[in-house]
Amino acid sequence: MSTPQQSQAPHRGLATYRQLAPSASVRVSNLCLGAMTFGLAHQERYGEMTKEIAFAIMDHYYDNGGNFIDTANVYHEGQSEQWLGEWMAKRKIRDQIVLATKYTNASSSGSKDPNEVRANYVGTGTKSMRLSLERSLANLQTSYIDLFYVHYWDYTTSIPELMHALNDLVSSGKVNYLGISDAPVWVVTKANQYARDHGLRQFVVYQGMWNAAMRDFERDIIPMALDEGMGLCPYGVLNQGRFQTAEGYKEREKHNPGRNFIPLSERDKQVSAKLEALSKKTGHSLFNIALAYVLHKSPYVFPIIGARVVDHLEKNISALDVRLSEEDMAEIESAYDFDHGFPHTFLSGTLFDGSKPRGVTGARDVMFNNMGNPRFEWMDTPKSISLRWTRFY
């Protein structure tokens, strides 16, 4: 019997693939290309973009091995989906792309009628879901979506209605996997348990905002993902332009064509200072270190990266070469005291003693498990996959 041969060198960049989640076998690139900036409808918010530049960005991503692209029905009033669909059709590569889109925000019917009743074009309910999916399929020039997200939890749809309606889409062959974005943890766990109890497809990916200055994922979302066998697709990993060098902040004040509607905070500057110090120490850019930070925090993490020019994308890809030690990670996190909140600080023993607040990632961190006799040994929490994979042929 032949023995798999180990490659002599790691396969660089986007052309090395990982399983999306323990509950989803599809293989994707380590960075997901976000298409939110592709379109003309909201340039005052996201910055200038042309179809030619968008196609060049997607070409560069794909030509470097990238296969995971994220959009939504609402981005630029559907134009993001349309440009993406046109690009895939032009290159004849639809089946090579793992395509993610979303519903819940109001989808556009294309009607110019000012009296059009759009009450059921928005929300998590069954009618909005089906209408939005059909429009997305048309925009994207495809017969199926690989990953279909609930874009946000609107507190209007029951879990049974939601999960049965989503499962119908999977059964129809129009959707392969289900994801959920910007939703409370209790919604995701309740929905997934309902799905398991009734033989339905569950959510396999959670999407939300996460970066070194906004670590809320650590409270409940990361533990939930580990327990539910879900992948994580964080957006805002570069803090939406608010991570900058000291010199970069000066330039930002002069000219910022992108997310100029988001104000800076003192925390942004504190974390940026730590990132800049590591940048000088390692030789990697501040932005690459910020991106590598989330890649090193947990398994099955696929950051969504946006770009307005090809150079932005190329610089983000090089973040896959960054290796951060535990000391580096701790140095980044020392920028501010992240409060995990109750009950996490109670369990870690830091709620009342005045020490730096800590969370709990497993049995080892629970104060009561380490008091008195007998003594126990505990399993470590799963770590992020090494970014230097072994490749087998």
UniProtKB/TrEMBL annotation:
Domain annotation NADP-dependent oxidoreductase: ranges: 31-336
Protein name: Putative NAD(P)-linked oxidoreductase
Entry-linked Gene3D superfamilies: NADP-dependent oxidoreductase domain
Family label: Belongs to the aldo/keto reductase family. Aldo/keto reductase 2 subfamily.
Key words of the record: NADP, Oxidoreductase
Pfam families given in the database record: Aldo_ket_red
Molecular function GO labels: oxidoreductase activity
Keyword S-adenosyl-L-methionine among record annotations: no
SUPFAM superfamilies from the UniProt entry: NAD(P)-linked oxidoreductase (SSF51430)
InterPro entries with a match to the protein in the record: AKR_Detox_Biosynth, NAD(P)_OxRdtase_dom_sf, NADP_OxRdtase_dom
